[in-house]
C-alpha cells in the first residue's frame, strides 16, 4: 500500500458558528464498507446527518459520531473521562508494531522498537516462511525474557484449520501473550476449537468487522469463545458498535484492546480519546500517525511507549 484514501465530514451550526470534523476512514480491501458507490453514500448522509450514526457502514458511523461530538463539545475533549489525555497529563500505553518483512528487516525493526522503550511488541506473521518467523522469535527470546518483553502475534488469518494447532504448539515455547486471528474470519467452528484447545490465547480481529447488533456480538463470542477481542471502531460499527462488543465481552470475562486502522490524525485522535475515557488495563494497539508523509496536523506525540496529546 503506497497511499491511503480517506474522507472528512464537517458539520456546522449556523447559530453558534461551531464546526465539528470527523473522519470517515474507509479501508479499501478490508472494510465491509468498500463499495463503488461509497462517495454517493457519503453525499446522502451529508444531506441526512441525523441518519448517519445509525448507518450500516462503520466508517460513516464513526465519522459522523466524531463530528457530532466535536460540534457539541465545549473543548477539544469529545469523550467525558478523556480530559487527562486531551490535556496532556496522561498517556495511553501502546504496543510497538513490527510490520512483516524479511528476517533481517524484522529483527532491525524489533530492535528499534525496544530501543524506543516498548515493553510490548506486536509482530505480524504469515508473510514469510514460518521457520524464519520462528527464528526471529528465537533471536528475540534469546535476548529478552518473557518478564522483560511481552510478545503479541498477528497472523491476519494466514493459518489453515489443518495446520493451526501445529503452528500454535511451535509458537508456545516463545511465551506468546496472544495470537490474533489465526484463521480467516467466517470459520466459527474451527476458530472455537483453536480457542478451546490451543496453547496460546486467541484474539479475534477480522471476525468483528461489520455493523452488528449487540445480540449478534454476543452470539459470535458464545460460538467462538476467544480469550480477547481487538476493536477497530472504523471497521466494527463505529464507537457505538465497539461499545457493544466491549459490553458483551466483559459479560463473558473476555479481555479487549483497541487498535487504529490507518486513520489520519483526525480519526486517531478521536479513537485515542474514546480509549482514554475507558481507562484501559491492557496495552492498546493505537498507531502514532508517523506512517504517512502528508498526515493532518496534530499535537499527538509518542513518549517511550505512551501516546500523548501535546
3D structure, described in words:
This protein is an alpha/beta fold. The protein has two domains: 7-72, no CATH class; 83-309, Alpha-Beta Barrel (TIM Barrel). 38% of the residues lie in helices and 17% in strands. It contains eleven helices and twelve strands. It has helices at residues 38-47, 49-52, 58-72, 83-86, 103-115, 130-143, 164-172, 188-197, 214-224, 238-251, 265-277; strands at residues 7-13, 18-24, 92-93, 96-98, 120-124, 150-154, 176-180, 202-204, 228-231, 255-258, 300-303, 306-309. The strands form three sheets. Strands 4-5-6-7-8-9-10 form a seven-stranded parallel β-sheet, with helices on one face. Strands 3-12-11 form a three-stranded antiparallel β-sheet, with helices on one face. Helix 8 links the parallel strand 7 (176-180) and strand 8. Helix 3 packs across helix 10 (238-251), helix 5 packs parallel to helix 6 and helix 9 (214-224) crosses helix 10 (238-251). The protein is globular and about 65 Å long.
CATH domain topology of the largest domain: TIM Barrel
- Strand residue content: 15-25%
Shape designation? globular
Global structural class: alpha/beta
Q: Tell me about the biggest sheet?
A: 7 strands, parallel
| Spans of at least 5 consecutive residues with low confidence | none
Please give the count of helices. 11
| Second CATH tier, the architecture of the largest domain | Alpha-Beta Barrel
Count of structural domains: 2
- According to CATH, what is the class of the largest domain? Alpha Beta
Note the run of SSEs as H and E: EEHHHHEEHEHEHEHEHEHEHEE
CATH superfamily of the largest domain: Enolase-like C-terminal domain
The whole-angstrom Rg is 20 Å
How much helicity do the residues have? Answer: 25-40%
The tally of beta strands, per DSSP, is: 12
